[in-house]
Design brief:
Strand 1 and strand 2 form a beta hairpin. This protein is mainly α and about 110 residues long. Helix content is about 45%, strand content about 10%.
């Protein structure tokens, strides 16, 4: 997540990959810096923080990562605390289909 309000890059991993998250956020940070230089001709250093919370819902299988990613995005975009877990994934998957079919995706 690129959190403009709090000026930080955020990484949510339902498989607990915090060390991978550092690399990902560093790459996103570098990409944003390069885009500023190339597109806006700006050469400034953004001193944004990296946020890698470890107390987030974790998946218990190898196939729900997409549902977790969508739910993380959904909750973060509404500035809500995560209130779901692995046990909610079947419902969440069905709910996502209904929302898409009804064109009610945020």
């Amino acid at each position: 997540v690129i959190n403009l309000r709090d000026e930080r890059f955020e990484y949510y991993d339902s498989m607990g990959g915090i060390s991978t998250g550092q690399t990902v956020l560093s790459n996103v940070d570098r990409y944003i810096q390069e885009e500023l230089r190339n597109k806006k001709k700006e050469s400034r250093t953004m001193l944004w923080k990296y946020y890698l919370p470890s107390d987030i819902p974790q998946q218990a299988n190898s196939y729900d990562c997409g549902v977790f990613a969508c739910q993380f995005a959904n909750y973060v975009s509404r500035d809500e605390n995560f209130s779901f877990s692995q046990k909610n994934m079947e419902y969440m998957r069905h709910r996502m289909v209904v929302d898409i079919l009804k064109q009610q995706v945020l």
